[in-house]
Amino acid sequence: EETSCPPEKTPCKDFISTLPAREGWSQGQPLIQYKKYWFRPRMLEQILQAQDAFKPRADDILLATFPKCGTTWLKALTFTVINRSRYSFSGDHPLLTCHSHRLVPFIEIAHHRAAADFLETLPSPRLIATHMPMSLLPPGTSSSACRIVYLCRDPKDALVSMWKFHNSVDPGSAMDQLDKPFSMFADGFSMYGPFWDHCLEYWRESLARPNNVLFLKYEDIKSDPVQVVTKLAEFFGVPFTEEEEKSGVGEEVVRLCSFEMLAGLQVNQVGGVDIGHKKYISNSVFFRKGEVGDWANHMSEEMAEKLDCIVQEKLKGSGLSF
Ligand code: A3P
């Protein structure tokens, strides 16, 4: 089926060709700067199209993440929390037979049809995802009553995860050493980067509108997943009842969505996720290690200190730290 971005020239492509460009992580795929953020040309095209066509609804639930910060996990947890009265935790649960990315579509990544048209067909309340920075969300999205959950992660782990992911999905442009992606990331040049601006925009919004924007860190979910799941249920206006708490519903959600559980399922080991333009990413690539601190296995202490320093400086005074 056709995706939202035909390969021929479009006004969008003409516009993109006027923007600042620099070498990207993949051969033949420069990074293009649009309003301080860097994107691959096709991704930017899809973002611009989403800005034009996506119609926000007040009851939308939007999962926003910087890439490789746990999107797949957050999708699973949220889907399971809000649908907990529809499905039991075993047997018929959709997560057992569907990859998270199929259950929760991205706004800006076309699946089988033009993304915006497809999203229009979903019943309310819609559960949808994005990697877009807050300031680039389609008009009306952030000002609507919709609820946004943002997830980020220690940038050192995000970088290592992104590097490993890049090497898996684009072996032709694989970078054996971390040096090059490290210096690009540290200068803000990565898909959807700079990392710190992406985090800061959602962070500030979560402080200004706590009922609408919930800010989470991967590390916090790892250290107390049940507490985070409980918080999610409250945030969505469907808190766990006393009975649910007693029967350990939070624990069940966490168990079903755990790395070990999901990574081991057949559906997540075979097949791929359609990312538009007839490109697929193998389902298993979204499950690598699922640990906090894997950066230490790939990054020197010196690099770690340097990145920590840069990020600290960028986040200074915001109240956000990693
Ligand atoms: P690692 O590469 O550090 O292992 P995203 O979903 O945003 O693409 O992020 C992918 C990262 O989340 C990967 O990190 C992946 O292993 C991890 N991940 C995926 N599913 C997870 C789960 N159920 N629990 C914890 N981490 C998970």
TrEMBL record:
Sulfotransferase domain span: 59-319
Single GO term (MF): sulfotransferase activity
Domain of life where this protein originates: Eukaryota
Top EC group: transferase
InterPro entries in the record: P-loop_NTPase (IPR027417), Sulfotransferase_dom (IPR000863)
Keyword tRNA processing: no
Family: Belongs to the sulfotransferase 1 family.
Protein name: Sulfotransferase
Provenance organism: Brachypodium distachyon (Purple false brome)
Highest classification ranks of the organism: Eukaryota, Viridiplantae, Streptophyta, Embryophyta, Tracheophyta
